[in-house]
Hints:
- This protein has 305 residues and is of the alpha+beta class.
- It has two domains: 1-43; 82-206 and 249-304, Beta Barrel (Porin), CATH 2.40.160.
- Helix content is 20%, strand content 40%.
- The protein has helices at 2-43, 55-59, 63-66, 235-240, 242-245, and strands at residues 86-87, 93-112, 118-124, 126-127, 135-145, 148-157, 159-165, 171-177, 179-186, 189-190, 195-202, 252-264, 269-279, 291-304.
- The model is unreliable at 1-50 (pLDDT under 50).
Amino acid sequence: MFFKVCVIFAVLACAFGFRAQMKAEMPSFKKAIAAGVAGIFATGALNMPAHAISSSELRSLSYLQVKGTGLANRCPDVPAGEDGSISISGGKYKIVDMCIEPKSWQVEEVSTNKKGETVKEFVNTKLMTRQTYSLADVEGTLESQGGKLVFSEKDGIDYAATTVQTPGGERVPLLFSVKNLVATGNGDKIKPGFEMGGSFTVPSYRTGLFLDPKGRGTTTGYDMAVALPGIQGGLEGDKELFKENNKRFEVLKGDIEFAVQHVNAEDGEFDGVFVSNQPSDTDMGAKVPKNILLKGIFYGRVEKQ
């Protein structure tokens, strides 16, 4: 019995010692992780996942082979080492099979420092959406105009409803979008180092048929909260709840920049990294949108029309 008690105390002592050691090393461990993530974005290594998959490999898989694996949310990669170029001249071209996959979502938050100064900074968030946040099969025209390449987005899965959570626990919904994107880049060739960017449209996160918890909507539902008629009968009550009652389908703007890293000239493929800045959901006009900073990878293929 005495031997068993000694063994138990020894095990507990080791366990507490291990936890204390991990607690002491945790700050440096977190710094190392943060430095590693920062290095990934700084070096543009976002497009080099542990298990990269090419477009030909992805197309060779059947529906059942892709179902439930998360591959449908993945953007294919151009093999590393490809450094060719795709010349856009002497005809009409288009970009097809374009895929845009975010890897990082940051929300701009306003805080006050010790000096009492207002500081704006982007904070990392936790993704709350399942693997349905990538844009795929985006396509549009690609033209050479005055020594510049202009890509005009026309079709595809060009928006995706996404929700992220800030460190404080706030859920921030957004409609990740590249609708009506017009991106411009210098030169007439797509090659490693080529950059293009422009503005796009961010539609309302909710549609006109959406009803809030009190049955209010834009095209259907009530004009005001039926459960609160007492404070809505006059001008003062209407002022307090005007934004909640007056639902609007708002169309906002965002900006995106692409940087090409690899080009497979033989198949017309290219990939790289992107940075996008767009507003979040406004709850149909009831809230002020937050600025969302997205970083990730993209893939595209050039075809001659």
